[in-house]
What we know:
39% helix, 19 strands, six-stranded parallel sheet
Amino acid sequence: MKPLYLPSTLRELENLEARKLGLQSSRELIPIAVQQLFEFCLPLLEKLSPQKIVLLEGPGNNGADGRGLYEKLQIAFKDKNLQWLTINTHSKSDLDLSSLASDKILILDAVFGSGFKGPELPVFWRSIFDLIKKARIHNPYSLKVWAIDSPSGLDCQKGRPAPGTLPADQTLSLGFSKYSHYLPWLKPWIGKLDFLNLNFENSLETCDVMLLEKTDLPAILPKRVESNHKGSWSRVEILAGSKEFPGACYLASLGAFKVGASYVYVPNEVFSEGNFLQILPEVIPGPAPTTSPRVRAVGPGWGLSPSNMDFLKNLLSKDSSDFEEIPQIFDADALVLLSQIPQAPSFFRNLKKIHKPVLFTPHPGEALALLGETASKSTTFDPKDRLQLVSELQKKWGEEIVFILKGSGNLIAQHQKKYLSRWGSVAMANAGHGDLLTGILAGLLAQGLSGLEAALCGLAIQGLSAEALMASPSQTTGILAHEVGQRVPMTLAELNLMN
């Protein structure tokens, strides 16, 4: 896994790295950063062959990094017929649209870096950035922007670009990998990401978020051998679907089967309403036998009926023996109903030693409901800050639960650890993918994975399966949940071949 950091953590870590080198402060690391930037950029610049290099110089360490690189490049290219220009708040801007739109230009963005906190850009820099963006319309191939450490205007703490943020063609990240640089929705601002670690120690022990990588997966996938049979794993009981939404139960069942479950049970009424004999005859109607090990998934397309509320209240009124014996996944309508049961948060918080995994899989709207908030009126925290949102869930509902906050840049959290899973595509922004994921998670739990392992593998398997169906990286529509489900076995086979 790759360690990722937030700006709130970086200052202390940079000072620690400085002290290791016998330096007094992180500012004394600037010459090291400048040298690595220069060595990295020199061959790229020789290939790019710009006519003009423009430095956008900010007042802090980021500006000093940019200034140091700029001066080294001037020396290296002193015999070249290059134009050099520096823009800062103390100089009059000599940038004009006509030259930007016609010349072969490299812009070094060294204004704010990863320390920008927003929410607005200063008027001076906003006007400069707007001019550059207009020039890009006329000169899309010959005007390049390289961001030093991070694009100016990007709030790396919250993962949000301020209005007017300058998009980079290439981001040269320094020292520590920044969480925001790996968020899928920020790719248009980050461009191509290159990481110069400056020989700093990027550690899983000190990071804020861990990025799951494809090479991590084979070690945690379920292990199957030829001697296994259909009785080797737990049975999956899916309480999902309704007369209005029978497809939700089908997709959850499909996900469980395709990822490796042997037996899947669904409610009798959903079995008949959903025409399962024709579409998925392997499904068994009725509850799973209590005499066999089982996994329970509750919520997709389930509805908000009084009987469903009674089921959850009864589940929570027991002595929690169900939670000691049965891995459980709560999704969609089950989460909405749990949010309406006053004693539910304390019940889950008090499950200090859960014997079996419990997973909550909300999208942001359901997460807000679990916190008693709404997207339009949230008074206690920023609902768009996904890291804060999942932290608030843990605070209210307990850290034993494995939370999956769904959406672009899926977040997984348990105890003090958070993980980022970035596979998938906006082409999945249609109904049913959450239902499919619930089934995939249930099937993985049935094969003996822990809650955290199931979350890490499940999101990866679903996202990689969707990506494999895309006709091109630019596809933004049309990846349907049942198609992704059918691709799951091939994805598993490909991952196992990596082992």
